[in-house]
Amino acid sequence: MLLTPEALESLRGRLIVSCQAYPGEPMRDPRTTAQVAASAVVGGAAAVRVQGLADVQHTRSAVEVPLIGLWKDGHDGVFITPTLRHAVAVANSGAHVVAIDGTRRDRPDGLTLAQTVAGIHAESHALVMADCGSFQDAAAAVEAGANLVGTTLAGYTGERPKTSGPDLDLLEEIAAAGFGVPLIAEGRIHSPAQARLALDAGAFAVVVGTAITHPATIAGWFVDALA
């Protein structure tokens, strides 16, 4: 499950598609997730991001691009792959990259972010993507050993206001710091134009989820516009 530096470099300037459905939705099925991911790859996605162990397993068999896996457990606070146990399980399910909460908040298992990252590296071949909410989070995540940092949690931790689109100011601030690890733009990227802006702001690659893979939300946008 080793993601080589060459394979990681191949994501530069490319689209990563997040394929997730919420509990109770018609598309909430690992087989459907894998099909959606495979369709995204046909459309040109260079990698996919998937939530849940079964979804990771099914998607790993369906695509040949790098797979970023995570495990959401809960709804508030630290719930994106919140513990080392969750992270190792995601890696063992086939993820090339494990996305974890990369904020400076206390983790449910009492481990520090650095201990969590070290544990993932020690127990698997997976890389670690730190989902951050601020510049301070990103700096701490890099110091902790994260292989990639993302703006996934910008606007959701109370440190920054929630922007209507991607947090371009945060992207520019992190990019200017030159941390030396790939910076992934993620969060509220709802159009190709916004994806381009995120890349121009300094992102290494761009994750788009809802605008591509969540029909209920996309339909709602059109319904609201027609109303």
From TrEMBL:
Pfam families: NanE
Organism annotation: Pseudarthrobacter niigatensis
Presence of keyword Ribosomal protein: no
Cited InterPro entries: Aldolase_TIM (IPR013785), NanE (IPR007260), RibuloseP-bd_barrel (IPR011060)
One Gene Ontology cellular component annotation held by this UniProt entry: cytosol
Keyword vocabulary terms for this entry: Carbohydrate metabolism, Isomerase
Family matches, as HAMAP family: ManNAc6P_epimer
Catalysed reaction equations from the record: an N-acyl-D-glucosamine 6-phosphate = an N-acyl-D-mannosamine 6-phosphate
EC assignment: 5.1.3.9
GO biological process, alphabetically ordered: carbohydrate metabolic process; N-acetylmannosamine catabolic process; N-acetylneuraminate catabolic process
Family: Belongs to the NanE family.
Protein name, entry field: Putative N-acetylmannosamine-6-phosphate 2-epimerase
Pathway(s) per entry: Amino-sugar metabolism; N-acetylneuraminate degradation; D-fructose 6-phosphate from N-acetylneuraminate: step 3/5
Top-rank EC class of the record's enzyme: isomerase
One example GO MF annotation: N-acylglucosamine-6-phosphate 2-epimerase activity
UniProt keyword Isomerase present: yes
Function (record text): Converts N-acetylmannosamine-6-phosphate (ManNAc-6-P) to N-acetylglucosamine-6-phosphate (GlcNAc-6-P).
Domain of life: Bacteria
